Structures are given as C-alpha cells and as structure tokens.
Automatic annotation (TrEMBL):
CDD domains: UDP_G4E_1_SDR_e (cd05247). Keywords: Carbohydrate metabolism, Galactose metabolism, Isomerase, NAD. GO terms for cellular component: cytosol. Its EC number is 5.1.3.2. It comes from Dyadobacter luteus. This is UDP-glucose 4-epimerase. The gene is galE. One of its GO terms (biological process) is galactose metabolic process.
Amino acid sequence: MKILVTGGVGFIGSHTVVELDRAGYQPVIVDNLYNSNLDVLKGIREITGKDFPFYNIDCNDTEKVRELFEKEKFDGVIHFAAYKAVGESVDKPLNYYENNLISLLVLLRTMKEFNVKNFVFSSSCTVYGQPEQLPVTELTPRQPATSPYGNTKAIAEDIIRDHVYSRPDIKAISLRYFNPIGAHESSLIGELPNGVPSNLVPFITQTAAGLRASLTVFGNDYDTEDGTCIRDFIHVVDLAKAHVKALERLNEEEKDNYYDVFNVGTGEGYTVLELINTFEEVNGVRLNYTIGPRREGDVEKIYAQSDKVNNVMKWKAEKTMADALRDAWNWQLKITPKK
C-alpha cells in the first residue's frame, strides 16, 4: 500500500516513514521544509536502505496536491504537516488557522476526488484544554483550548468527523499525541527544528551541548509536586509505530463512515523538573536552567489513560522516558559541530 506522509521530513513524520517501511508500506513524503531539513532524507535512507519519493509541496497548494494524487495513486494519507508551536500560535493566531485548517481541507477534498479512503490525522492532547480530571480518556470532555494551536486541532477533528459521517467511502482516525520526545536509536534521525526550538527536549539538548546559554523553565508555581507543569512524555519511535497500527485498524474496519480518536501516551505524568533531572542522570550532564514566568497557552497538567489504544489497536508504549532522553542526547551529540 502506498501511503502519503505529509510533513514527512519532520520529527514525527520521519520516524513514521521508517516504521511504515518496516511494516511493508510504501511511503511517499511531502514537506515544504518550513520547519524541517532535507538532510533528514539522508538519515532515512541510511536506516532503511531506500530512497522514498519526496515532493517539496505546500499542502495548501490545491493544484500541486492534485497533481501529486494524479501521479502517485495513494491508498492512504497520514497528515502531519502543520504549524505546532504553542507560544507562536498565541502571537500569530491567523497564521495557524490559515495553515493548519486549509491544508486539511485541501487534502480531504483531494482524497474525495481521487477516491482515497484511509486518513490518519496528527492531533494532540491540547484538544482537552485543562481537563477537570486526570488521567484523560477519549471520553473526557474537550475544554476550551488554551492556545490557537490547540484550537486548530480541535476544529480539525470536528471537520474530519463531519466529513466522514457525510461520506460512505472514507475512514479516519485522529491520534491525540501527548508529548513526543527522543530520537531513533541509530542517531540517524531525530528532532531538528529550524531556529530556536519551541519544544522542551531539543532546547534541553542544545543547552547541554553549549549551543544555548541556558534553558528557561516556564513557571514553578503550578499546583504540582515541584511547581512545574506535568506532561506525558512518549518516545517518538513508539508514537511512529502507533501510526502503523492506525492504518492497520482502518484496513481491518469494514464499517463505512468509520471515525475514531485515540490517546497515544504512556499513561504516566512527569513534571518538567523530573524530566530535567532524568536527563542529567541518564546522560551524566549538568544542565544550566533558570525558572521564568509562566508561558501563555501552557496547560498545568495532563497525562493519558491509554487503555483504548492498548486494547483496540494493540499498541503499547515500550520505551521509557530515560530511553527517550538518552536517544535525544545521542542525536544531539551527533549533529553538534565539533569544536
């Protein structure tokens, strides 16, 4: 089966390309390189021994997307391509609504035109806002999003649901990620943001490598054990494997108009300071960090209940937070220029 992977040069997308290949799928990569780097394709090639088709296309470009579907004849789509920085979305909400929602509409319309039936969407636990009870299940009511980024994911889920229910010939799954971290154990691919990282772990590894003076922890006055935010940190390879399981689930499902959502997390919550302490412990590195004010848009605490994805999709997180932080540091050491 030939699978379109939008944002396939990005952090989660590149690892998913590798796992799709391992599972016998034929990935085709689309990325506009807005927040990614072509060097990632070399890492994918070294891991898999294969050159997968790559197209530098913006998913908002209807004509280019149509031309791609005409050429490649896809059996399914995994849609990662989106802006994803919480803080930036607060500053530039219109950019986020335009990019994240129009690209989704273009893909769904093109899939309809070319009769492509299987769709896996990269969603987020941010759709839960600040939940009233923890851990969150898929039945936990969605609270108002705390950022425009989170709201784009909630709106996108609604669009997909309504589209699936209106069409007898499309099936879709939204995977609500918790906090992906780590890198491939080969250190050939990992998180490689352009400019200043918006995610915690690459900022940690860049600080530890001396590329940044210090890390700012946003707030230590939350209602948690040490005052810092609580998150469910999941290894990116485990998350990538969940996308393969989602495709298998769609292929097995005989019901038309099938749409479902799944939390993809470990089921464990850790504070930001616990993450930092674990990083220092497993890697033998001291990290220079300071405590700053809270960051607008951040949720105080959230972690998953993963029973549904464990039981329905037969997926379970296998790697620990320590594994992920060790892999992330090894990746950083590999890509940091030698002095």
